[in-house]
Every structure is written in structure tokens, then in C-alpha cells.
Amino acid sequence: MTRTQVETPFGPARAELHCAAESRAALLLGHGAGGGIEAPDLVAATRAATAAGVHVALVEQPYRVAGRRAPAPAKQLDAAWLAVVEDLGERWFEGLPLLFGGRSSGARVACRTSSDGSAVAVLCLAFPVHPPGKPDKTRLPELDGVEVPTLVVQGSRDPFGMPEPAHHREVVTLAGDHSLKADVSGVTKAVTEWLNRVLHTLDA
Fold first, then answer.
1. How far is CA 85 from CA 34, 114, 183, in A?
2. Where is coiled-coil annotated (predicted)?
3. What is the residue extent of each domain of the chain?
4. Which CATH architecture has domain 2-203?
């Protein structure tokens, strides 16, 4: 595991790199709004990816690196993310297909930037479809706008809502809430199976 700092338009971001024995692709994962890269589902996804031959970069947004808990506005999050993608794509992952992902807020960033960042697939852990108790304030357009293979892993009791499967989009429902920590092994299994399908398509 290696840590590296990346300059962005909104201050330095940080990436924790986990290298696989193979180098079939690279997965960049972002954290939730108030949490860090040590979240159980992010750890599980990292293990699943490296076992499948995919390098992983766990990305800490500049506001977290600066010690702030309140997230930056969406446009700043997206711009910082794309700066990290460009930097790591050149320094660490040159020539590899890039997959984007994250949990909660990080999943939203991955969806919004998937086209501009040329992601080949998107992994969403606990995508926040709407704020709790406010189903009218939907974020589904961010998810619907993704045009590459997408996996959403969602807790069955997630107060942030449940997305439906759609074209290019698989949804795996696990026991538990927004944290997904009630079934970490389920996260690993879902990510492993999906990655193997995505990688098979890329290798074809």
C-alpha cells in the first residue's frame, strides 16, 4: 500500500494505492460525505478488486485532507476528483482501463464524472437516491446518466432509498442500512462477481 498526494484546483487530495498482482484495470473509489476511506464497504470492495487483478486508489477529497467534515459543493468535488483521475492515470495507471466508484456521496461523484473521466464502469456503494424522508428530492438523474456498466450495492433498509435496475445497471440488495456493514461479505461477493463480468468484457 502506498499513499500519494495529488494537487487539485481546491487543494491537495490524497490517494491510498492498493496494487494487485495483475494489472487488468484500475478502480478509483471515493468516500462518503462525512466518512473516510476506512469505511467497511470500501475496504471490502478494495479487497475484492485487488483479488480480481484490479489496482485500487482510495481517494480522499481535499476537504477531508484539510480536516473539514462538511463536504465541498458538488462542482468542487467533481473537479477535484477529475484532477486525481488525470494525475493517477498518468503516474500510476497508464494504459489501464479506469473504473470509478465510491460510497454514498462518492458514488454520486463517480456517476457525475464517469463520462468526462472516460470511466469504463461505475461501482456505487449505498447510492443516496434521496435525502431521508424526502423522496421528492431525487438524485436518480445522476445514476441514470451513467452510460457504462454500473453496479449498485444497496442496503435493504437504507433510508436514502432504493434504485431500480435499468439498462447497464445492476442492483444488489443486501441486509442492512446505508452503512452496508451488516453484510460486508455480501459486498465482497457482489463486487467480485460484477468485476469479473466487466473484466471479461474488457478482455474480449
1. 22, 11, 30
2. none
3. 2-203
4. 3-Layer(aba) Sandwich (3.40)
